[in-house]
Amino acid sequence: MKKSHIIGIVVIAVAIMIIMSTAGDASTYVSFGEAIERAEDGDMTKVHVVGRLKKDQQDHIVGMQYDPIKDPNYFTFMLVDTNRVEQQVVYYNPKPQDFERSEQVVITGNMQQNVFVADKILLKCPSKYVEKDVAKTASL
Amino acid sequence: MINTLIGDIGHASVIVAFVAAVVSSYAYFMAARNRTEASGDTSWRNFARIAFYVHSAAVLLIIFSLFNIIYEHRYEYYYAWSHSSNHLPLHFMISCFWEGQEGSFLLWIFWHVVLGIALIGFGRKNKVWEAPVMAMFSFVQLFLTSMILGVVIGDLKIGSSPFILMRDFMSDAPVFAMDPNFVPQDGTGLNPLLQNYWMVIHPPTLFLGFAATLVPFAFAMAGLWKGKFTEWVKPALPWTHFAAVTLGVGTIMGAYWAYETLNFGGYWNWDPVENAVYIPWLVLVGAIHTMVAYRRSKQGLRASFILVIATFILILYATFLTRSGILGNASVHSFTDLGLSGQLFTYLAAFAVMAVALLIYRWKKIPATQKELSTYNAEFWVFIGAAVLCLAGFQVFATTSIPVYNSFMGFIGFETNIALPADQIEHYTKFQLWAGVAIAVLTGIGQLLWWKKADKQSFKDAITMPLMLTLLFSSLIIILSNRFDIFDFKLDNPVYITLFVTSLFAVFANLSIILGLLHKKITLSGGAVSHIGVALMLLGILFSSGYSNIISQNNSGLLYSREFSDELNRDNVLLWRNEAIDMDKYSVSYRGQFFEVSDVPEYVSKELIFRTADEYMAIARGDIKVGDKVYFKTGDTIELPSPENTYYQLEYKEREGNNSFVLYPRAQVNESMGLLASPDIKSFATKDLYTHVSSIPDPNEEKDWGELKEYDVAAGDTLIINDYIAIINGIEPIKQVPGVQMAAGDVAVQADIKVMGEKKTYHAHPIFLIKDQMVGRLPEEVEDLGLRITFMNIDPENNRFKIGVNATQKDYVILKAMEKPFVNVLWIGSIIMSIGFIMAIFRRNEEGNPKPKKTSKPQSKREVQAV
Questions:
Q1: Where are the bilayer-spanning segments (chain B) (predicted)?
Q2: A92 — contact with chain B (CB < 8 Å)?
Q3: Cβ pair B26, B51 in contact under 8 A
Q4: Proportion of chain B above pLDDT 90, given as a percent
């Protein structure tokens, strides 16, 4: 066998390894129900959950707690997933500043005991581009 | 008044540019046909040239029109309104130009024009290439100009014009229904994160890199088309180097911008937008290696074709990823979706299909040698190096494309829910680190073999010295770092040790090459120089990322039982104003909020600034001085160039030792984007200290003031307010009140109160005024102490007066601080790598255009290589 063939085979093998590892490391978007099931099965892989903040009738956010004076690294809130399941989420970091304004929240993490521990929070805020308020600059 | 003329000029120019690109590509195509070439007829070529010049002139006119709209603040145009504002300085107006998709397309088009004209000039010397290469250029321009065409035919929207008027863009807005000629007074401004000098030069550099990848691609395609399978490599090679260096420098600039402006704590976040450029760059560097190998030994031609074509297709893929909106949730900073995804896909598909089909069609005709390479052939190792680069690129590609898989599956009717890996850093590192190791080893071996005879003995001779130095140095550093406490890091992780040792080897091996070439021909050492740069970059990345150390651990003792009490990250610390906290070897205090003031070289305390209704104007409450020089006197009007940014003064003092320094991390609360915090970095020789604000009390929330306590006092009294001793010095009438127009009959009196804080004494001057028979009170806040003092009332008969005091919680910031060892090595390495590339451009360019008197040069070079 020629050297170039051996190298070719090695390259293909590495490429297959890359594809398999990508598939293995890729996370999934799940609901809280499935996240809880995974945790019960002892599967600690991190997942993505998409949801909205829990609000009461007056549109106030419910169950959110951040007291930087007590602990600047503890932020907790209630998230309602697409199946309308509520779950307490804990984030060991300061509260993202525009959190209340977000329309949709994507969290990455896993269930630990009875709470979902998030290590990343991605906020989808009302689009900066489309909903810019002309009237505001108009009044100036 | 709406100025429609400039927009019409711009839009007409876009159409002219598009039509001229169509004409030029057709005419160049005709000129490149074998029949035309054989007949010696140059009329098609001359016609095509004119069309390309017309295209170029039109492009310049588009740029002029768009910049004029921004520069003259013509907010009747959506582009100016959404990307610019009245207060932007000129250099940021330039960044506005390419903040939007349309402007960045224009930038790209502009660079193609510049390169195209350079190639036409080049073509005059080297006639055979002009027609086929420029046909490809014009064809690309046709697609790119179509992106900003802004023509709607039925339901089909072709391109998005930057010259659209507000009233057409927002035809539903009621304000335009009332008055179609309404012009907004101000724009909504440039994204604050982009208001940075790097954003003035990073995009043009990056797009020049994008544009430059077209040159080797166009040459490769011309070579395939015209059957010049081998000749294209020589003229294309310097351009390939040029593309690699501009794309590389552009990417590094972006990384440096991220390091300095964003607060994720590093220079690389594996964001799809970053990856999208990194992938083609890796493949492009791979292409350079196969092309250089081909130039020396006539091997690797097919690989060169594949890699050059792949680079260009990947650039188009990057464009598709970042601009089509397909990334959605996956990226923080891609462009907004302009509804061009179909058009972008067509662009990508057209070139991918055309290039791949042509390559397959011509594949058999591309000469390939069947000669087997021996292990002592440098080319053998160069090819392995190219393969490693491509595999590294492929790994990033496979993961970055995850959002594309979802869309594709959705398109063919399956619902999938794959997400990007939860821990991206870990995922990418586990391959990229080993790719780094392989590349470090290969650069050493490859270079050593390249300049030696291809046999075992001479290789042994060459490698002995670098290998010994590597072993010596690395064992020294490993032992020192583990046994003795003289470094900030402990090099004990076997994976890191591997990368460290191999990178050191690459440095020494390439250094030995440079030393060897010093007394022969130093200009040949471009490869060795850039390889040293790469090795240094690897070292810089290893230490700055692998040994990044968060020093702002929360150890305030306030921890109380939560769901988990253990090792979880507590990387943010709350700092009360003027209360020092220990971090690492420093004692850190938060000293207050500061602002930038025009013409003052340092930041100015908020306490000295009296804000007015105009955000950008303020009045000095006291003398503003730096050192002994007074810049503004009390009552002077001062200008705030960036009123939205607050700088938080942090004093770092070494607990043992007398060194201290001050950092000003920046934050602003942006209406649409939340808290935008940028770090301040203190650079030492061996590390950077990186500090950013991670949270502040919400400035929009009214402060919670305690109950008002009134005191009835006279001049000279001493009293205790909220645990601080205060002395009433007296009252005095004043003529001017900041921010108030005083008329005849108006009276203003200010009290002079001295408050003794823990660290220093504060003077408060609350004002009591009677204006137009109405009582007004201007309280003064002592933010350091959390006090607000109001002059309540005056009793002139008894010479007594009343003051009121409210107390609040003190001001605080929450911050995160980390050390990044040897991050400078990364930046230095990238500069050295670029120098190496530039040396190679000159060398390869000389080869490409041999000067008549230097005809003997190729032989002499052979000799050097053979030695």
A1: 12-29, 50-71, 105-122, 134-153, 206-225, 237-258, 278-294, 301-320, 340-360, 380-398, 431-451, 463-484, 496-517, 529-547, 822-842
A2: yes
A3: no
A4: 48
β-pair partners for B774: B771
- Residue range B598-633, pLDDT digits in tens: 999 999 998 888 888 888 899 888 889 888 899 998
**A127 in B contact zone (CB under 8 Å):** yes
* Cα–Cα nearest to B55, from B131, B133, B110: B110
CB contact under 8 A, B418 and A26: yes
Residues B273 and B452: their CA atoms lie apart, in Å, by 41
Of A12, A16, A27, which to mutate for an interface test with B (greatest number of B Cβ within 10 Å)? Answer: A27
Partner-chain contact A137 B336, CB within 8 Å: no
Q: How many helices (H) and strands (E) are present in chain A, helices listed first? A: 3, 7
**Cα torsion B62, B63, B64, B70: sign:** positive
d(CA B450, CA B523): 15
Token readout for B421 is 């890996």
Q: Which pLDDT tens digit goes with each residue over A81-136?
A: 988 899 999 998 888 877 877 778 889 998 988 899 998 888 776 544 333 444 44
* Percent of chain B at pLDDT exceeding 70: 94
- For position B555, what pLDDT does the model report? 61
Q: Do B372 and A3 touch (CB under 8 A)?
A: yes
Q: Would you say B747 and B796 are in contact if contact means Cβ atoms under 8 Å apart?
A: no
At residue B806, the 3 state secondary structure works out as strand
Contact B176, B79 (CB under 8 A): no
d(CA B108, CA B93): 18
Q: How far apart are CA B492 and CA B329, in angstroms?
A: 38
Alpha-carbon distance B515 to B524, whole Å? Answer: 12
Distance (Å) of CA B68 to CA B10, B55, B112, B185, B196: 10, 20, 22, 17, 22
Mutate which of B77, B84, B186, B188 to test chain A, going by most A C-beta atoms within 10 A? B188
The pair of three-digit structure tokens given for residue B288, joined into one six-digit string = 């350079």
Is the pLDDT at B539 greater than 50, yes or no?
yes
Residue B698: closest C-alpha in chain A: A97
* Contact assessment for residue B213 and residue B312, using Cβ atoms and an 8 Å cutoff: yes
Residues paired with residue A43 on neighbouring β-strands, in sequence order = none
Query: B572 and A93: CB-CB below 8 Å?
Result: yes
Mean of the per-residue pLDDT values for chain B? 87
A57–chain B nearest CA distance, Å: 22
The tokens of B60 are what? 């310049």
Looking at residue B211, its pLDDT comes to 97
Residues A92, B427: C-beta atoms closer than 8 Å = no
Torsion-angle region of residue B98: left (phi > 0), alpha (psi -120 to 50) or beta? Answer: alpha
Buried b (16+ CB within 10 A) or exposed e, B654-675: eeeeeeeebbbbbbbbbeebbb
CA distance B663 to B649: 6
- CB-based contact A120:A107 (threshold 8 Å): yes
The ipTM estimated for the assembled molecules is 0.87
Q: Measuring CA to CA, which residue among B63, B81, B65 is closest to residue B73?
A: B81
| CATH 2.40.50.140 describes domain A27-124 | yes
Cα(B450)–Cα(B237) distance, rounded to whole angstroms? 18
Name the residue facing A90 among B173, B398, B563 (closest C-beta).
B563
Please indicate whether, in this complex, the C-beta atoms of A3 and B380 are within 8 angstroms of each other. yes
Query: Which of B75, B372, B419 shows the shortest C-beta gap to A28?
Result: B419
Helix (H) or strand (E) holding B780: strand B780-782
Q: What is the pLDDT of residues A21-34, one digit of tens each?
A: 998 899 888 899 99
Look up residue B382 and give its two tokens: 């160069």
Tens digit of pLDDT for each residue in B687-711?
A: 999 999 988 887 766 677 888 888 8
Chain A partners within 8 Å of B391 (Cβ): 11, 14-15, 18
